[in-house]
Amino acid sequence: MKIAELHVPDSVKEVLLDLGFKELFPPQEDTINAGVLQGQNMVLASPTASGKTLIAELCALKHVLENHGKVIYLSPLRALASEKFEDFKKYTSIRKADGRRVSVGISTGDFDTADNWLERYDIIVTTNEKADSLLRHRAKWMDSISAVIADEIHLLNEAERGPTLEIVLARLLQVNPHIQVLALSATINNVDEIAGWLNARYVVTEWRPINLKEGVMLQDEIQFKDGSSRKVEQETRSTPVNLVLDTLRTGGQALVFASTRRNAVSAAKTIASHMSKALPKSGSKLVKRSIEEQTKRVLEREAHKIQEAGERTQLSDELADLVRSGVAYHHAGLGGAHRRIIEDSFKERKIKVLTATPTLAWGVNLPARTVIIQDYRRFEAGYGSYPISVLDYKQMAGRAGRPKYDKYGEAVLIAKTADEADYLMEGYVLAKPERIWSRLAVEKIIRGHVLATIASDFAHTEQGVYEFFGKTFYAYQYDVKAIKTVINRILRFLHDEEMIYVDGDSIFATKFGRRISELYIDPLSGVIIRDALQSKPPLLTEFSLLHLISHTPDMGPIMRPYQREIDKLTVQMEDHKQELFMEPPNQWEDHVGYAEFLGEVKTAVVMNNWIEELPEEKILERFSVQPGDLYRTIENAKWLLHAIDELSRVVAKNKEVSALSHELVERVSKGIKKELLPIVQLEGVGRVRGRIIFNAGYQTIEDLKHASIEELTNLPTVGPRLAKKIKEQVGGFVKKDTWERLDKAAEVTQRGLLDF
Fold first, then answer.
1. 285 pLDDT band (50/70/90 cuts)?
2. What are phi and psi of 515, to 5 degrees?
3. What is the DSSP pairing of strand 211-218 with strand 70-75?
4. What is the CA angle 278-283-286, rounded to 5?
5. Residue 634: CB partners within 8 Å, gap ≥ 6?
6. Which among 641, 639, 661 has a CA at the least distance from the CA of 111?
7. Which phi and psi angles does 403 have, rounded to 5°?
8. Which terminus in the chain has less CB density within 10 A, N or C?
9. Residue among 721, 640, 638 nearest 684 (CA)
10. What percent of the chain is predicted at pLDDT more than 90?
11. Distance between CA atoms of residues 677 and 672, nearest Å
């Protein structure tokens, strides 16, 4: 089917034709023929790069331009949401019947708001969790949604994210039974069940625009799924490295999956040490030198970006050194800024080899010619090492083959023995993905959703609650009776903890319960905070609140203490004992609880060091944490401190706690002492620059108003561009010729960086 033949507005066709789209892929044509543009609910299950996003775009624009509708696009991750937002922005030149342009909005952050400003957008991209939060706030504009697009629907099977996606879809169908649902997925085993739950048709295909060759490599030979094989030159003692070098010499990129963060880093370092062998063996020395010098310049710029993103640390220097070799690693321990630079550089084909943990397979789209799975096991704290699922393997393998660059993609598992090679071929390459099962019926997962059902006025009777959960995928796969026992236990808990009350046959949320639901925190976290606020430690300090939030389940994985830290943390716990809201467990009677408590103390100590402006490098080194884990803890801490601030107004009327928690939100966000609060509100001024400016004598906004522009420019790490921005923000007087000199200096500085 040609693009010109589509039953969509001509303005949409023009955008696509201008971008070079001329003909639909087979899966796209099948989905169109199945009725997706006629409002039919649809599940499209097809491999990576088979064109699912275009179907989502056509469906969304059909609603906006012809049905005057509003569309919400659900993504499991913020990074993916940002990708889809960029995809949809290409249509914002199109005008609707009323003369206004198609508008696209994105919201993935603050969970304690209805985001009423989103009402003015036609297409809204958001995460599953943000959509759940908006539903809890009963954002009025959500009642007018005519279509929901659910990306990565197979994540229903994922214990952490799956239940939220399931609840959001069930809730949207409850709010508007006539809403169109388009669910997108990798190929899965029981698409018919998901389609049955959503009252949808389904299209399942294995078609890919680029042929995928799956195989197992033992020593120097790859045996492929189709019966073919090929030899790989053995230049090193490492099988994965040999395959990487083989890929690079033919102009490909390689994506190497390792079981742990440490293994991903180790693999990157090993590969980097052999990258000099990756140059083509044929060709003149002059051509080789030219390629080498050009590559070196490009990679030096990328390395510089890594070192300039945030505080410079040993980790950022290590990563920059790898990038100079054309190699990088990617895992959750990296900070967001570094991950984005690496992702962009790999997409732009500057970085040639990327090593990663399996979680990348569920994240952003980073295709490579060759995907190498060097270890089919993965490790998770608390669970140990276990084999990946077939679905995980298929997700990784699906990254093989770069559209527009490769004629084929290779996904290769590495075997150490002949028996293991047979196992990998039978158990992964030739196997079908597992069935998708709902993960909803776990008390700690759904207690917040049960409360939200009542607090957001979706149901006001016990039967009404059961009826809503009867619309979930869990009830479709099993029976609502199977989940009734769990719901009944949760209702008793919510009643006993005064989050709901009963009036005759009706159930209502208390003010406390409603606020817990709106704050998007676990009801158990709410109980812990409430009980703490009704008492008070002998000495209320920042540490009191930092430990309190570390004690809640919403803090997520706490920073577990290493054996070498136990004695020191025990001393620190004793030092801070007067500041704690709760007594530590007895070390001898509750060994597990005591160890958990020490982990909470460690998390609070790390946060305390952060707000006391200990350099990031020192924190990472002193506590053996990684940037991504530190930033995740910071984000969770901001959210929970805000919750304390809000709940202290509802349940305890504790002005002292409210003021302290409100201040701490800002301090934790920036990692600063209290004295820097005014200065770091300025755009471009973070904890490091803020301290430099403060120590130079500019301690207030008024000081900066009267500061000489030359003095600011000469401060370390400030320079002309930021000096100009600061003066614009504080409203200080600057002569016209000074602005002109600043503009010129900033331009020269920027050009120098680009030529670096």
1. low
2. -70, -35
3. unpaired
4. 95
5. 607, 610, 668, 669, 671
6. 639
7. -55, 140
8. C
9. 721
10. 68
11. 7
What is the CA 582 to chain-centroid distance, rounded?
Answer: 33
CB of 213 closer than 8 Å to CB of 372: no
The rounded distance, in Å, linking the Cα atoms of 254 and 246 is 10
State the DSSP H helix or E strand holding residue 218, giving kind and residue range, or none if neither.
Answer: strand 211-218
Q: What is the distance between the alpha carbons of residues 424 and 684, in angstroms, rounded to a whole number?
A: 51
Cβ pair 671, 618 in contact under 8 A: no
Please say if the pLDDT value at position 749 is more than 80: no
- Percent helix / strand / coil, the chain, rounded to 5: 55, 15, 35
Instruction: Say if residues 206 and 174 touch (Cβ distance below 8 Å).
Output: no
Question: Alpha-carbon distance 756 to 750, whole Å?
Answer: 10
Write a three-state SS string for 237-304: CCHHHHHHHHHHHCCCCEEEECCCHHHHHHHHHHHHCCHHHHCCCCCCHHHHHHHHHHHHHHHHHHHH
Question: In whole angstroms, what is the distance from residue 638 CA to residue 520 CA?
Answer: 13
> Following DSSP, what letter does each residue of 626-664 receive, concatenated?
-HHHHHHHHHHHHHHHHHHHHHIIIII--HHHHHHHHHH
Read off φ and ψ for residue 382, nearest 5 degrees: 90, -20
CA angle 170, 507, 142 (to 5 degrees): 35
The DSSP symbol for 554 reads G
Query: How confident is the model over 576-611, as pLDDT tens digits?
Result: 999 999 999 998 889 889 999 999 999 999 999 999
Q: Which helix (H) or strand (E) holds 34?
A: none
Q: What CA–CA distance (Å, rounded) separates 526 from 517?
A: 9
Q: Which tokens go with 14? A: 């023009």
Q: How far apart are CA 317 and CA 479, in angstroms?
A: 55
As given in the structure block, the two tokens for residue 339 are 């991950």
Provide CB contacts within 8 A for 20, sequence distance 6+.
none
Total Cβ atoms within 10 A of residue 363 = 20
Residues 35 and 261: their CA atoms lie apart, in Å, by 44
For residue 165, CA distances in Å to 78, 80, 123, 131, 160 come to 14, 15, 19, 9, 10
Cα Rg of the chain, angstroms: 28
Q: If pLDDT is split at 50, 70 and 90, which confidence band does 286 have?
A: low
Helical packing angle, 616-623 and 314-324, nearest 10°: 100
Q: How many CB atoms lie within 10 A of CB 81?
A: 22
On average, the pLDDT of the chain sits at 90
Residue 756 is predicted with a pLDDT of 26
Q: How far apart are the C-alpha atoms of 310 and 323, rounded to whole Å?
A: 17
Element (H, E) at 540: none
Beta bridge partners of 74: 126, 150
Burial label, 560 (beta-carbon count in 10 A; 0-12, 13-18, 19+): middle
Q: How far apart are CA 627 and CA 389, in angstroms?
A: 28
Pairing status of strand 384-387 against strand 377-380: antiparallel
Residues in the chain: 756
Sign (positive/negative) of CA torsion 609, 615, 620, 622?
negative
What domains appear along the chain, each with residue ranges and CATH number?
3-204 (3.40.50.300), 211-429 (3.40.50.300), 443-519 (1.10.10.10), 523-671 (1.10.3380.30), 683-754 (1.10.150.20)
Pair of tokens at residue 633 = 């803890």
